[in-house]
Backbone:
């Protein structure tokens, strides 16, 4: 691919040449400025003794308390547990939930029967539309002691005793990952299928004539051609690592599927901050802890972008 | 071709939906014109003022100011309400901070933040400026409300309060305490063993375990979990020793460890089941009991609730029957607080404070308060000599069917006392059941100061309290389901240390002094 | 068919078998719980909670749906939802693709800074209170515009779009510009038609977000005529869940419905329209538009 180079041109000349393009981008930037950057002043709450009774301007006029809320969070008895669970669940999701849509998209694209392919794909994204509230309700019917799965396994003698999937603290992480894959795999497949749809068919045919096997063609043609999309989605997913990756489901899962029996593995930073912060109207505390997460996310995404640029050549910016 | 099929399919769906909605539309419209007609005739006498009310409880079962009781209120005050129910916990917070409160706010949280002259009219202002009068209101209710504000004025009056005197003079049993329901048909099979003490109860659990191996003897699902057993053993969320004036947070109370040990024994012997315990949802918890999965079931004391549960159990298994376990504690344990749980605020933005004052004047008067819970005097109830309402057959039938909200709609009574509510629930009920309810009065002492003393959410102690409660959720489960005695001991030690680090002592001290102040407010 | 199968080599066959097995498994695992919600929504709630319902409703009832067909507000909610989805998606996709297209030029001046600005905005936010105040200052509170304007720029799809547009040969645009087309025309006439898979994906994601979003209604809109379907649905789901703060004052449902059965019905009502729309968009993913065919 050759790209038009702007060599020897003066800066303003170049700018003038891309005037329309700059306009396109600036419309977006103005949007960003108004709807993202202006409200960002609220971040100072994290360092202030702010209570909602102070009104909006109280954000500026309330007293500075420095790192009070950060200290409160780090010194919390639950801190260690929260960090451990948040990291463990997030990393497990990155390992299992992220690759699944890619594998599934490749499989679908390799399918010969178009009708069946369409059927499978259309059905696979249905769970995306079910809210987590309902997923929690259904999983109760499937996974509880007297649920469908236990009944089935016990009746077929595969299990001696039913397993309480929902209240066993050793199973929460597995459940979280499984339900996440179940709910979001088909949905994210759409993005990768769109990328595969753009792959040159002639390349495939040419390779087939050259005698390349199917696996080889997938490996050497399909995957490389969707690499930019994969890399970008991966970087974004890592940027949202602690939110739960692509689907960002950590909070809802932990909030709905967590209970007193599995809290040792299901309590995460977001739910804890929600319980002791937001639900008590302590916006300042919630902002402070949210800020820590934002900073970590930004560091993660910048590093990933850098590494991916070095290794694969494709990057966000 | 495919497109055509799809298009046909879609249009069929459209037609069907349109048809369905059109039907309901027609219905809605006709009823609306009826309503309009009614309002018009009323309007010729008094003009209706409409107020916006925000109800900060997402579970609220009604969002329309309609029904027998709302009609009474409309007639008496000339005020109509336009109701919004909260969907998100953040709504009220945003309203407060942006100063965009609607006319009225009925809420069970943020009471301390709203009790502020910046946001709301105080009730005394309503009296001075807008002609409200709250003559029938008891001093104790006002004192409780004042404890939430910093300027010594009161901005709301909490419902479901009860003064100590009223509580002493109440004619019927209590309502709302943790209780245990059980399958009385199964007890019949066991030969109706006596359950008069905790030891008896434990024995019966063992009997259930051996006789009904497919059932869990004691289902501790939903919200109440081990609360009944705790209360019987004298351990509650708030423990206040009236004699010494000492306050203990639950986990630091004497007897807490023994209580947890007993629960652990239940778990080790298989009387209780971890998955049931894990369930936080009230509805799902009850479902176990409906389905015949457990013999005993932890719930709360409520006549209507009992009827509903019984109906549901029987709709699954017609041969089954349900009864309520009487209070088996020795009594004398100070606990509980009739300090109310929700109240109505009039915001500074109120478009018509005069109408709000009229509404509250009526609702806080004895007449309006009673109408708000019991309906039309002379039609739905007549007042007995002892002050207990005697309800009409129609009212009782509606109550037994669990349709009070749909037909009478007492949910728009923003002020009522605990006693009004108890009478509404119990008066004219089955005497046998009422006798059981009466036993619970022994286990309940009226201490409004306990709730009044509680710190505001944004204070240091408020934060500590929230965190203590979070710790409890996780550690109690671990204690109760500890696999061995050593595990129990180590978990207990760990729990105590975590409590200590979180600031248990500071909280206990704060409450102990704060209770003294609250008692002063109550004139004790 | 059989002949075709014979022609294939072993590798082909194994892959086919693996793919078909896996996809069938996925099909079953995803479709069955969904089907389960469907039959639960048509079954008496209490009866359903006993378990044992696998294929057909045992005690058929429409009770779970009764709420949806007895009140005109649902029709109005449906209308508002459709309107916000159509307008909101149109606006958002237009803005997002334009910005993505602009940023896809590697030699764009200031590109690096723009990208960093976009990324920071994805991870930092000041919370709900300043945001609310901003919207109030702009006069968006309690208007229909609050559904479609504030969230119109989808930063995630800006980034996905950049990756996509970068793959389109620049020669195409350049040749159009040599022919005298303006940038916007080149984009509209040459680039957009080649970007159907991306645009369709964008439409779908943004559209579904618009359709499902209830939070903005809850916080920013008080006018009941502006309530969306998903917001009304959320109210139903909420009111079936008894609060733990004041349980003794919770509701007691005497009828045969349960939390799950009503949720199931609400779910079906909200999902059906999306299922109906999706097949129209899907053809863009499967038809395999050949962008690569013009590659150099």
Residues:
């Amino acid at each position: 691919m050759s790209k038009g180079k702007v060599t020897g041109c003066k800066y303003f000349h170049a700018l003038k040449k891309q005037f329309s393009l700059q306009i396109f981008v600036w419309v977006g930037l103005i949007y960003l400025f108004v709807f993202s950057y202006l409200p960002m002043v609220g971040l100072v709450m994290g360092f202030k003794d702010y209570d909602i009774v102070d009104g909006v301007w109280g954000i500026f006029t309330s007293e500075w308390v420095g790192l009070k809320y950060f200290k409160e969070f780090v010194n919390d008895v639950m801190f260690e547990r929260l960090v451990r669970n948040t990291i463990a669940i997030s990393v497990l999701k990155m390992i299992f939930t992220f690759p699944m849509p890619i594998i599934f998209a490749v499989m679908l694209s390799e399918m010969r029967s178009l009708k069946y392919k369409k059927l499978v794909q259309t059905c696979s994204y249905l769970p995306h539309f079910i809210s987590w509230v309902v997923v929690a309700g259904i999983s109760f019917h499937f996974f509880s002691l007297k649920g469908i799965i236990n009944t089935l396994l016990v009746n077929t003698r595969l299990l001696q005793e039913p397993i309480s999937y929902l209240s066993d603290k050793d199973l929460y992480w597995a459940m979280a990952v499984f339900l996440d894959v179940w709910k979001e795999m088909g949905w994210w497949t759409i993005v990768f299928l769109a990328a595969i749809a753009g792959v040159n068919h002639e390349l495939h045919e040419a390779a087939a004539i050259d005698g390349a096997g199917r696996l080889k063609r997938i490996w050497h043609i399909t995957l490389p051609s969707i690499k930019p999309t994969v890399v970008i989605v991966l970087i974004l997913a890592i940027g949202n690592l602690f939110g739960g990756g692509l689907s960002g489901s950590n909070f809802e899962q932990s909030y709905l599927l967590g209970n007193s029996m599995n809290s040792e593995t299901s309590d995460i930073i977001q739910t804890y901050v929600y319980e002791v912060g937001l639900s008590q109207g302590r916006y300042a505390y919630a902002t402070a802890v949210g800020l820590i997460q934002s900073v970590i996310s930004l560091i993660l995404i910048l590093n990933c972008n850098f590494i991916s640029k070095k290794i694969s050549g494709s990057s966000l910016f | 071709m495919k497109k055509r099929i799809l298009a046909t399919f879609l249009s069929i769906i459209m037609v069907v939906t349109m048809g369905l909605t059109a039907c309901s539309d027609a219905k809605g419209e006709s009823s609306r014109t009826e309503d309009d007609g009614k309002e018009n005739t009323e309007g010729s006498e008094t003009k209706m003022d409409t107020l916006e009310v925000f109800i900060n409880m997402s579970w609220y079962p009604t969002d329309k100011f309609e029904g027998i009781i709302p009609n009474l209120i409309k007639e008496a005050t000339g005020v109509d309400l336009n109701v919004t129910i909260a969907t998100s916990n953040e709504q009220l917070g945003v309203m407060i901070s942006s100063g965009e409160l609607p006319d009225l706010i009925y809420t069970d949280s943020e009471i301390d933040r709203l009790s502020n002259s910046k946001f709301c009219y105080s009730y005394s202002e309503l009296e001075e400026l807008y002609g409200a009068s709250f003559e029938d209101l008891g001093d104790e209710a006002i004192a409780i409300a004042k404890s939430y504000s910093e300027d010594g004025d009161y901005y709301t009056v909490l419902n479901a309060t009860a003064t100590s005197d009223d509580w002493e003079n109440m004619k019927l049993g209590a309502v709302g305490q943790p209780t245990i329901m059980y399958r009385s048909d199964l007890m019949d099979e066991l030969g109706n063993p006596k359950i008069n003490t905790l030891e008896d109860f434990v024995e019966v659990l063992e009997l259930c375990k051996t006789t009904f191996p497919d059932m869990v003897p004691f289902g501790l699902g939903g919200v109440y979990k081990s609360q009944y057993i705790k209360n019987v053993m004298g351990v509650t969320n708030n423990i206040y020793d009236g004699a010494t004036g000492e306050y203990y947070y639950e986990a630091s109370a004497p007897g807490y460890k023994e209580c947890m040990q007993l629960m652990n024994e239940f778990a080790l012997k298989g009387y209780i089941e971890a998955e049931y315990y894990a369930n936080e949802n009230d509805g799902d918890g009850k479902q176990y009991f409906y389905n015949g999965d457990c013999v005993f079931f932890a719930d709360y004391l409520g006549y209507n609730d009992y009827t509903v549960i019984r109906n549901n159990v029987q709709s699954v298994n017609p041969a089954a029957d349900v009864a309520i376990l009487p209070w088996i504690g020795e009594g004398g344990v100070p606990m509980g607080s009739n300090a109310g749980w929700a109240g109505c605020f009039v915001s500074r933005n109120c478009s018509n404070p005069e109408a709000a004052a009229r509404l509250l004047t009526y609702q806080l008067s004895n007449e309006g308060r009673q109408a708000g819970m019991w309906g039309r005097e002379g039609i739905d109830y007549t007042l007995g000599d002892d002050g207990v309402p005697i309800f009409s057959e129609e009212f009782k039938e509606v109550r037994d069917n669990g349709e009070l909200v749909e037909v009478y709609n007492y949910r728009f009574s923003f002020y009522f006392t605990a006693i009004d509510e108890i009478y509404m629930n119990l008066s004219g009920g089955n005497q046998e059941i009422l006798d059981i309810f009466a036993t619970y009065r022994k286990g309940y002492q009226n201490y409004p100061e306990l709730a009044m003393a509680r710190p505001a959410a944004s204070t240091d102690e408020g934060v500590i309290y929230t965190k203590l409660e979070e710790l409890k959720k996780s550690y109690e489960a671990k204690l109760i389901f500890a696999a061995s005695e050593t595990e129990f001991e180590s978990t207990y030690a760990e729990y105590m240390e975590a409590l200590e680090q979180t600031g248990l002592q500071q909280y206990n001290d704060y409450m102990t002094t704060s209770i003294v102040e609250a008692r002063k407010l109550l004139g004790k | 068919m059989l002949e075709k199968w014979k022609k294939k080599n072993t590798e082909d066959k194994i892959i086919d078998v693996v793919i078909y097995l896996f996809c069938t498994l996925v099909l079953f695992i995803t479709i069955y719980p969904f089907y389960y919600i469907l039959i639960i929504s048509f079954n008496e709630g209490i009866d359903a909670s006993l378990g044992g319902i696998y294929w057909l409703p045992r005690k058929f009832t429409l009770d779970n749906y009764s709420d949806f067909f007895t009140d005109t507000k649902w029709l109005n909610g449906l209308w508002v939802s459709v309107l916000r989805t159509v307008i909101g998606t149109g606006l958002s996709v237009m803005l997002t693709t334009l910005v993505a297209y602009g940023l896809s030029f590697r030699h764009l001046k200031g590109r690096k800074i723009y990208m960093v600005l976009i990324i920071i905005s994805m991870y930092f936010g000041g919370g709900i209170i300043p945001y609310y105040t901003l919207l109030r200052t702009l006069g968006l509170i309690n208007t229909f515009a609050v559904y479609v304007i504030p969230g119109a720029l989808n930063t995630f799809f800006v980034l996905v779009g950049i990756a996509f547009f970068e793959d389109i040969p620049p020669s195409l645009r350049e040749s159009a510009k040599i022919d005298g087309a303006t940038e916007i025309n080149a984009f509209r006439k040459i680039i957009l038609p080649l970007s159907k898979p991306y645009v369709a994906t964008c439409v779908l994601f943004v559209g579904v977000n618009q359709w499902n979003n209830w939070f903005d209604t809850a916080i920013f809109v008080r006018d009941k005529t502006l309530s969306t379907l998903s917001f009304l649905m959320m109210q139903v789901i909420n009111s079936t869940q008894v609060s733990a703060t004041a349980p003794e004052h919770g509701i007691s449902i005497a009828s045969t419905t349960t939390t799950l059965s009503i949720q199931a019905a609400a779910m079906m009502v909200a999902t059906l329209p999306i299922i109906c729309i999706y097949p129209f968009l899907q053809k863009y993913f499967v038809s395999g538009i050949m962008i690569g065919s013009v590659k150099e």
